[in-house]
Amino acid sequence: MPARERPLAELVVTSPRVAPVDATLRLETPEGIDVELRPAGPVARGLAIMIDEAIAWVVSIAIAIALSVFGEAGVGVYFVVYFLIEWFYPVLFEVLRHGQTPGKAALGLRVVSDDATPIGWSDSLVRNLLRVVDFLPLGYLAGVVSVVTTRHFQRLGDLAAGSLVVHADRVDRFAAEARAAIRTDRAEADRRLGAAPLPLPLAVAERRSLVGFAERQADLSDERILELTDLLEPLSGATGEEGRRRVVRMANGIAGVDG
Amino acid sequence: MKQRVFEEQRSTRWEEFAGLVEKLDGSTGRRLAKADREALASFPERYRELCRDLAVAQERHYSLPLLDRLNRLALDGHRILYTRDSNLVLRSVRFFAWDFPRAVRRDGLAVSIATGLFLVPALVVAAMITWSPELVYSVIPGGRVQEFEEMYDPAARVLGENRDAGTDLAMFGFYIMNNIGIAFRAYASGLVFGLGSAVVLINNGFLLGGVAAHLVSIGFTVTFASFVIGHGAFELTAIVLSGAAGLRLGWSLIAPGARTRWASLRHAASETVTIVYGVFAMLVVAALLEAFWSSKGAVLPEIKFAVGGTFWALVFAYFAFVGRGGSASARAGGGDGR
Questions:
Q1: pTM
Q2: Interface-testing mutation among A14, A25, A31, A114, with chain B (most B C-beta atoms within 10 A)
Q3: How far is CA B118 from CA B111, B113, B189, B202, in A?
């Protein structure tokens, strides 16, 4: 095995208990565990708003056309409907549909309270009423500035209501099933490779990365997998498919797979 | 314990929990089948077990995909367990009998200032126009002045014609859209250190004072007064209250007291939203009255004055007396906010 030029530990981020540098928010729940939320940034939120406004616009035009046959009474009903859409369209979806308006659902976002509980009526009302201020002076400029400068991507309405817009982590069911099928096939084959001891002591984070890599192979292309295991050549002593097998065997050893 | 062994021991439990989450996610608690309701009873315990598993996995530094999966399940469970399910009727009754008038009294200073910001400009403009009637055109655009004159011209009512029901409904819808929109904006713009609310109140004060003084000066007093008094008790009060709530929002940023500015804003927002709900209800009533009652030419002005006066008295009595008394703990609690 060729001598290593640099200690492996330098290539890997140390202890995952250090505060994450990205926008992940870690909360302690009443049960004493830490759960992680991923607040969504301005681009995703902006796209979601645009989709919602387009939908609201189309719906209100459709209703206007439908009501036009009723003459003046229809005009009155239309005013009420327009009012409800203008102020309450987001509120209804946020409270009744697990924090997802159609625009947010399309982007995989969700509105939650900042303690990870679902958003309530009052908070949803506050955050949507204050859209008026977020819109100032033009095109949500105040809101964008607020999202970009606060720690957890909150606009002014979110700050007042104690809410967050997070990535919903709702896995696309079809893709998940497809991946699960690949995963079990490969997992079976990898399991049969058996376990191997590590050639040198590794830190906790490094061991965790190896096991994580072995588990995530279904999400990567074959070329990418080999590219990654080739990087581990100082550890495994081989490249290509043989290198991958050795890395997987080491991961099996760490995870306790017997083969 | 190695990760695989850990996973094998517990994976059935996790899958059952995921299935339970899916079932509960798609329905409110009441509409579950009987078998599901029994499963529901075990939900808190299962959730606690899952939390233990997640904590153990975190401590033992198991792989990130596993932690991801458990984290996702935990978030779903947390979300379902802490969804508040409450009786809407009870809360509505409690709101009107208790939360709303107490909230208004609690923010009495803001309400007084808002009243001043509304009435003082109104009185000033009214005095100006009474003294020099052509000043009305400096305060209100000429086109709108003419609109108001046409609306309140007694000659239009001399034949006692009523609007048809369709027009009434159209006006109702218009008042809902217009007035409640103004009230919401009066509230929300208070975020800009209270300035937005102040501007809305002052503007509406100018408008009311200007229109009132002008119509009096050309002799339309009775039609105007009998129209306004019917719904004014609700509409004017609501505008003032929403402005007061906005002022409170702005003030929470200027003088946050012992909290950080954002925490102070959060606190003020959650307290003032009670007033916003009440304002909404009052303006719906005002819109109903304005569309279906105030403009009825067939009703004698005397009756309208009597009814309108009664409404004013009721509104004042409501905010002054309803919801008084009660225990200290109830006083310490907030409205039906978060």
A1: 0.75
A2: A31
A3: 10, 9, 16, 5
